[in-house]
Specification:
The protein contains eight helices and three strands. The protein is mostly helical. The chain has one domain. Strands 2-1-3 form a three-stranded antiparallel sheet. The chain starts with 11 loop residues before the first helix and ends with a helix. 25% of the residues are buried.
Length: 281
Amino acid sequence: MTSEGGHGPLTSGEYIQHHLQNLQLCKIDGEWVWNQCAGNFWAVNADSMFFSVVLGLLFVLLFRRVAKKASAGKPGKLQAVVEIVVEFVDTSVKDTFHGKSRLIAPLALTVGMWVFLMNLMDLIPVDLLPGLAGLAGVSHLRVVPTADVNITFGMSISVFVLTVFYTIRTKGVTGFIGELTLHPIEPPTRGIGMIAAPIIIAFNFVLEAVSLFAKPLSLSLRLFGNMFAGELIFILIALIGWYQLPLHLGWAIFHVLIVTLQAFIFMMLTIVYLALASEEH
């Protein structure tokens, strides 16, 4: 691979930096431009958006096709795999979420499979798709959406909004405020101790607010950190040269576990957060 100006091969540092640079789109002086978005808050990582949408559509179309062609007799291999996945997710939801909701199981299935498919892109050789994109004139391309913190934050913020919604729906606005201000230390309601009640309420609010906002933060950064590290290791292996295959194969086999585990963790934490939000106590 040559440098952007075509002045010879990239150095190791330039090669790594090139592979970690997203294809960005932003508006400058009323015009849409590509890869001139340094420091622009409103820049869109077009490659991450593209692959996340495509993989989301792939999941929906694939599962819809299986559902339409499902048979009660001898199922095909694809139907058997889909049934195993759906049954596993359904069991996980029933074991964790004890409320009544028609949203939780489909949401868990969607989140788990979507994250899994996005993570799975990390197993594609690092130069394959960027190389093909380069032939079409696309200078940068990152193919692992979950290695982009914007994607993981977007998903975790969606889970956070649903958590707040379920908390308010189950316990009301006063119950939600009470969870933030009356725990873990119960403020005194009578006697001279009432003088300290505002301080205790403020202290509780700080602790519970930190705990509340730490959920989407940890949810997004855990997934991003693991996938970014995996992507970086594949890039470093690619720098070794022609004898990279054994290392690439070994890391890919191990990385399959990480890809699956991170999707499972994201799905389970989504279920747990919504289960806690729906509990009345």
